[in-house]
Every structure is written in C-alpha cells, then in structure tokens.
C-alpha cells in the first residue's frame, strides 16, 4: 500500500468540497433532517495523528472501512460522486486523483463481508476513472453528430460525422463507437492517443465517455490500402509514404508503445498525401525493462502478428518491425497490380506456408523485407537502419 492514509486524505477532500455540502438533505436518508446545508459536520474519520502511534496502517484502514460500511449517508455521497467524476468542469483533477487512489485502495482490501453497495461503487470508480491526459479531450454527446457508418470492426463501428466547436462551427471527423462488451479497447485506445502528439500519428479530437465514442481527425484520402488501389502514386511519393510510417513508428518506440496491428488498412492518407498511423485499439504501453509485453487476456493471432508471438504472446518493438515488413510487401503488391480482394486468400496461405509472392517486389526490397520478417527477432533491423535503407530508395 503506497500511502496508508490515502483514504483519510480522500475523505478530507470530499467533506471539504462545497459541491457536496451545498445540499445536505440530498444525501440524508432521513426525510425530516432540516440541517442547514452550509453547516460543517464532523468527519467520521478519526484524525490520523491521534491513532498513528497506536494502530498499524492496516488497522487504521480497516477501522475506517468498517465505519464506512455502516454509514448510509457516506454511500449516497459516493453514488453522487459517480455522476460527476468524469466531468472535469464539475470535479477538479486533484480530487479525481484522490478518487483513483481511493478506488485502488478499496481494491486492495480483502473483505468478503463488504456490503454490495460499497463493492459496486469501488468497482465502478475503477472502471470509470479517466487519466488526466484523457480528461482534456472529453466532451458531451450532443457535440458529436454521426452522419454515416463507414465500417464495422472487431471492437467498434466507424462513422463519418461532425464535431461542434465552441464557436458553433462544425468540423468533419471520424467517430469510432465501441461495440457492446468491447469498451475497454476503446478506452485503452483513447488513453494512448491522449498521450501522443506527432505529425505521423492520427490525432484524437475528443472522447465522449457517456456514449463511449472516440473522435479523431478526418483524413481526406482514407485508408492507405484503398488509396494505393485507386490512384497511381509516383515512386518518390510511394517511398515517402513508407518513410512517414517509419517516422511514426520511431516516435511510438520512443514512447514505449507497441502498436500490435500495423497494416496498410490502419494507415491513413491526408489531403497532401501525408500518412498517419491509426487504429490503436490493440496498442499497449510497455513497462517492463526488457521491452516485452505479455498478453494476458487471450491470444491475438492476426495476419500481422509474427508466428512466434502467436505462440508466446510476448510482444515487443521487434514484433512491430515484423508487421512493418509485411506492410511494405502489401504496399508493393497493391501498387504494382494487385487487388485488395486478393489479399486475404494470399495472407491465409502465408499464415500456414510462410511464403509470399514477390513478383511485384524488386530483389533489393524483397531481401530487406525478409530481414525485417526474420524468424529470429534479434536479427531484425532497428527503425533507424530501416529508415536509412528506404531513404536511399527515394
């Protein structure tokens, strides 16, 4: 337990917050209570100095929780907090930080006899809490308008729509709405995007927690795979697109983020043919010193996952480099005569045979793609070397 008195600090914050003291009757279970709403009432938590020398940290916490479970007013106050804890205008960030610590503290306390309301509240607080970075992007549902559905994926539906700005004008945006039961993926994607700011990473415009919608910038020319199929792209621009992707991936590596779904369908092209990496639904932030992320919630086995990772479920920057090798092959295949409808059967065969048709790929590029997709991850080149190689192709 990082701070044994975090619970006390939370209660002090809460009882001092005038927002919850303005109407004492709202929280009271006694309809005859006529206590003046501005009158301070004694906190139910003993001051820590009085008990600090007499009780252990765990005893202090257990004593407080035991008293909380008997206090209906306190439970009602917590329920009211749930209604505003995602609204940065009504609830200060400092209190949200304490609120998160409180939720984590409750999770650490094992008590089979804990009343259901308290368990429900602590669980809901943990699920609903938004990071400070993400809070800056939150907006209300009535600011977002969905116009048409573009696609449905494994975790959500993609819409084109508009977002109303503070001056009343509307911007065209892309809206990703979570499918039922897949909310954690959208929240994870929004949390990661809220921490990123780079010219080759798709920008998050807003996040709507009430309806679980992620609002992103609109890229005029759409997905890279569809763009390459529909337009003749000059060789120089083609390799500049590859360099855009590499630059974005270097930035992700600097921020210890593994994309885990790097494919041509998840790269988006702007009006001036600049490219940005998108779809961070499977992305993760690495915390281990060795740069490995171990998947715990079921396996991921998409086309752009190295065979060894499908077995081990251990991801790293090197697994993204493998996926980038396959992405480069996809780009050459589509640019030089291949069609999108042909990709799936080819990738299905590749998954079992490990072989790709390289008829449309120059030998020099083919050999480097094979290096990036080497079975031994330690033999795959780093991003700096990859950038140098493709810069020489421009």
UniProtKB/TrEMBL annotation:
The cross-references to SMART domains, in alphabetical order and at most eight, read:
TyrKc
Gene Ontology biological process: cell surface receptor protein tyrosine kinase signaling pathway
Q: What is this protein called?
A: Ephrin type-A receptor 2-like
Q: Which PANTHER family match?
A: SERINE_THREONINE_TYROSINE KINASE 1 (PTHR24416:SF631), TYROSINE-PROTEIN KINASE RECEPTOR (PTHR24416)
From what organism does this protein derive?
Answer: Diabrotica virgifera virgifera (western corn rootworm)
- GO cellular-component terms in the record? plasma membrane; receptor complex
Q: Which ranges carry the Protein kinase domain?
A: 144-390
Q: Name one GO molecular function term.
A: ATP binding
């Amino acid at each position: 337990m990082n701070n044994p008195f975090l619970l006390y600090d939370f209660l002090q914050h809460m009882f001092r917050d005038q927002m919850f003291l303005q109407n004492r009757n709202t929280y009271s279970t006694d309809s005859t209570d006529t206590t003046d709403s501005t009158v301070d009432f004694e906190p139910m938590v003993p001051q820590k100095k009085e008990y600090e020398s007499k009780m252990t940290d765990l005893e202090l916490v257990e004593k407080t929780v035991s008293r909380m479970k008997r206090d209906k007013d306190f439970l009602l106050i917590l329920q009211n907090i749930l209604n505003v804890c995602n609204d940065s205008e009504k609830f200060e960030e400092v209190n949200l930080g304490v609120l998160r610590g409180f939720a984590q503290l409750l999770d650490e306390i094992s008590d089979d006899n804990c009343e259901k309301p308290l368990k429900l509240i602590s669980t809901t607080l943990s699920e609903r809490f938004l990071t400070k970075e993400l809070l800056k992007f939150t907006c209300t549902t009535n600011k977002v308008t969905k116009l048409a559905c573009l696609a449905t994926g494994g975790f959500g539906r993609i819409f084109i729509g508009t977002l109303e700005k503070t001056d009343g004008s509307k911007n065209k945006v892309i809206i990703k709405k979570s499918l039922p039961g897949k909310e954690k993926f959208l929240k994870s994607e929004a949390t990661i995007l809220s921490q990123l700011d780079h010219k080759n990473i798709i920008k998050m415009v807003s996040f709507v927690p009430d309806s679980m919608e992620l609002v992103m910038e609109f890229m005029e020319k759409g997905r890279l795979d569809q763009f390459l199929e529909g337009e003749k792209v000059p060789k120089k621009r083609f390799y500049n697109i590859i360099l855009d992707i590499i630059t974005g991936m270097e930035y992700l590596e600097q921020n210890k983020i593994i994309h885990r779904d790097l494919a041509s369908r998840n790269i988006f092209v702007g009006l001036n043919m600049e490219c940005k990496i998108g779809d961070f639904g499977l992305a993760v932030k690495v915390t281990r010193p060795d740069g490995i992320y171990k998947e715990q919630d079921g396996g991921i086995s998409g086309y752009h996952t190295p065979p060894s990772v499908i077995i081990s479920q251990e991801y790293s920057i090197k697994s993204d480099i493998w996926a980038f090798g396959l992405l480069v092959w996809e780009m050459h295949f589509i640019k030089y005569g291949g069609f999108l409808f042909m990709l799936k059967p080819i990738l299905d065969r590749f998954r079992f045979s490990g072989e790709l048709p390289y008829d449309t790929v120059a030998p020099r590029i083919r050999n480097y793609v094979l290096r990036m997709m080497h079975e031994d991850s330690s033999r795959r080149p780093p991003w700096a070397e990859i950038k140098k190689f493709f810069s020489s192709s421009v």
